[in-house]
Amino acid sequence: MRFAKLWDMNVCVVGAGIMGACTARELARRGHRVTVYDQFEPGHRMGSSHGLSRIVRKAYPDPFYTSLMAEGYGMWREIDRESPEPILHEVGLMYFGQRSSPNMVSMARGLTAVDERFELLEGDQARREFPSLRLTPGEVGVWTPHAGWVHASKAVHWILAAAERAGAEIERKRVMEPLALAESFDAVVLCPGGWIRDFVPVPVRVTLQTFVYVRQHLAGPVWIEDGPDLMYGFPSEPGQGSFKIGVHSDGPVVNPSLPGREPSGDAIEKVADVCDRRFGLHDIEIEGAQGCLYTRTPDEDFRFGALEGNVFWASVCSGHGFKFGPWVGRFLSNVVEGRESIDKYPRFAR
């Protein structure tokens, strides 16, 4: 690398979703000159960072990600404090399933390893935290108070605004040859989300996932069902009489550049089923259904890497990446400055 110093570098960030926005903010706040290029206008709905809500949590079946979010969770609080309106809603998380499930066991172990508070609840205990939820015999809930949801679109908007206040410039421009950019910038960081294969032959598939708003008020925490579809959901957003449910299991593979984002009828049936089983809601009224993109690696791990010289790239989707945005922004900024290696985490370098 040709870095003579760690400050006042000229850096290009490609992609203005949550990963690019957080990276631009962090680099600009460190005093670097930052230019952000995105092929769409900020706030567009073609990628994976739009909409009203994304779950943020430390609890993971994989303790590795729990350890990363033990570092990254507090960054959301910092962003929330700096935002002119609330974006982080800490309502807790209930992750529930069979007591003997490997996911449930490893989640408890991971939380214990990072000394994160949690409770293992069943029956009346679970109803104390989530009165509407119905558990079946043999099921328990892992309850963590340090979790909730982030208003996704507002988060990206205010993070980009913070980057601009720190001196970053944001332009609508489609990048075709990132290596050519390296001739004009000290470093280039690629955060293109579902378009990563336009730049790097990383083994990902882009799927269209469906989320549904059900017309019914629901109080309580965010939740995840430990099952084949990993159904997940949110309480009603402030002032709203509906609540959101999503399907994590694979939707249809799509081309991210094509405009169609039609929700899946099969996914809507799964939402109706979980409403019946878990909340006793029959014949639900759907207020709205939408589709958004997941960019998944075969093992659902993230990927980081480098092209020639000073061009770095990140594929941090896999259906669960949004919550890691601030952590990724810090890591990639450290990489650009030479403080950390892009292959620091072997799982992300495969």
Helix content: 25-40%
In whole angstroms, the N-to-C terminal distance is 22 Å
Mean pLDDT, to the nearest integer, reads: 93
Number of beta-strand segments:
17
Low-confidence stretches: 1-5
**In CATH terms, what is the fold-level topology of the domain at 1-52 and 151-204 and 298-350?**
FAD/NAD(P)-binding domain
Number of helices: 8
Q: What's the CATH class of the domain at 1-52 and 151-204 and 298-350, please?
A: Alpha Beta
What is the H-and-E element order? EHEEHEEHEHEEHEHEEEEEHEEEH
Spatial strand arrangement across the major sheet? 6-7-5-12-13-14-11-15
Rg to the nearest angstrom? 20 Å
Residues in β-strands, percent: 15-25%
Descriptive account of the structure:
The strands form three sheets. An eight-stranded mixed β-sheet has the order 6-7-5-12-13-14-11-15, with helices on both faces. Strands 9-2-1-10-17-16 form a six-stranded mixed β-sheet. It has a three-stranded antiparallel β-sheet with strand order 3-8-4. It has a domain of 159 residues: FAD/NAD(P)-binding domain (3-Layer(bba) Sandwich). The relative contact order is 0.20. The two termini are 22 Å apart. Helix content is 28%, strand content 24%. With 350 residues, it is α/β, with parallel strands linked by helices. α1 packs parallel to α5, α1 crosses α8 and α2 packs across α3.
